[in-house]
Amino acid sequence: MRTLAPWGGDLRREMERFFERLADPVWEPFEMAAGDWAPQLNVSETKDAMVVTAEMPGVDSKEIGIVLTGDLLTLKGVKEKETVEKEERFHRVERAYGAFLRSVRLPMAVDGSKVTATFKNGVLVVTLPKTPASK
After folding, report:
1. Pick from 107, 102, 108, 93: which is nearest to 124 by CA?
2. Which helix (H) or strand (E) element contains residue 51?
3. Which member of 26, 44, 79, 86 has the greatest number of CB atoms within 10 A?
4. How many Å apart are CA 50 and CA 108, to the nearest integer?
């Protein structure tokens, strides 16, 4: 039988590992809309909370909106273009400006009444405590 299955049991183990990976939870892609740019997000989990960290350099904290609707967290705001009085001739422009909207569906229930947010050095951190049932 060895000549008919020269790979031995390795193929079977690889196939089992492949199908086990299919059962792993899959994150939905981040939803993006509105604007030419959007902040980059990290979504992490601690034993007590979900934490969403967003890079927003150059955004005024007064221009940021945070909305939690069920399990959907939405960050929105505006990054204003810096106006310069002097004449400039640009050779390269890579910085983006304008309105942004980012939404992420959370994988578990969170307590919307205890959500906190901090904004420091262009980084927004939103902490969303889990409900007792989610812990």
Report:
1. 102
2. strand 49-55
3. 79
4. 9
